[in-house]
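CO-FOLDING WORKSHEET

Operator: S.A.
Ligand of interest: zinc ion
Run index: 412
Mode: holo prediction, single chain
Checklist:
[x] sequence pasted
[x] SMILES validated
[ ] output reviewed
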Amino acid sequence: MTPADAPAARTALDHSAHPPWPLHPQPLPGETLMSWLARTTALYSLINTADLLDGLGVDTSGVDLDRYTREPVLTALAQRGGSTAERLREMTLAGYTPWLLDSTDPSECDFDTYVHQFSVLLPPGLAMADRRRRTPAAGTWLPWVSKLDTRACPLCIDALDTDADIAVMMAHQYPMLTSCTKHLCRLEFCAVIPGRLVFWDRTPAGSDEHAPPIPVPAVVAEIDRRTAAAMTSGSVELVAGRVQAAVWFRLLRTVVDEVSTPLVRTGWWAKPLSAIWKSTGCSRPLRTSWVPFEQLPWDEQANVLFAAATAIIAVENDEITASGADACLLRPRRYEPVDPGTPPTGSRSPVPTRSAWDGVIAAIDAAVAAARVDSDAARSLFGFARTGCRTEEDVDELAYAFVELGIRLDWD
Ligand SMILES: [Zn+2]
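OUTPUT RECEIVED:
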């Protein structure tokens, strides 16, 4: 990580080749590096992760390889494990720079630059003095990185065909995600022995099974879906269009800070902020005033994320006043109606670089995004789409398509 340990690494790795381990499972999608190494050791008896790292110049005491692993070590592990250094780097937090965070070195992560370059709910500059109260000391903070215990989705673990696939998932270890985006249930704290066992913190009395999964609010599920998409695809579809993952993570962190602002510091804007917290049914944890999100206890982080998710969806649905300079990123572009009966023809007009259909597609995407989280929007969209159905089978097909799109139809 530092120039000082590079020479040691060179001498330790001057072997020209690293013969492959006889047994080496392939990394699972989303798995962390240490989880993969632990699953590898599970295939052998009497071997632990330190043995796999032996001779690579890695100090295994207190070093977090899941955060950052030096390139020569990645290369050696890739050769031994039948993978590539690039694939293994993606299994560390460093593989998510610079879009999730600027660097895994806290001295290169500036709180103010990350958290306050955007403004969504509050006008830029409002309550700057208050924001400074939450600014951690320089060199002590990484965005979205908390001291979390391991979390996993109980239903994902239940669905595994084999214990050999029990793994620690990268995205589940950082507090910007509350839920499993597949099962829409809360991620649960646990201890994982990769390739072997999970011990759940929440277990029914007298059982070693997990307690029933806890569903998360629809707005949280929607924001988590976008965050997961940002991590896996590098971009997120918003109603105004696609934004890079880097924009999404900073925008979300901005809203997290904005909903953490004490109402007394926000003047007129206390009203929408108060409405957001009221609609969550939780009260703003007091220490959010002076403690950065990453250093809050888990249950308080979950409440702040719930408020942030509520705020983002409310801005998108035009339900609250947002006065930030970047609130436009969450609002639909002005809708320009298109007459589907008279498509533009090439003979009459030059082909525009941006087709009018882009607007239609964006509008449909926006309607679908809204319908996923809002039963009124879902009802309207279904009613609109149903006008094209001629038979009951058509209606059934339509209902099935809605379910496929993640739109609930079980409204009252
Ligand atoms: Zn799951």
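REVIEW:
The first strand starts at residue 151 and ends at 152.
The chain has 15 helices and five strands.
[x] output reviewed
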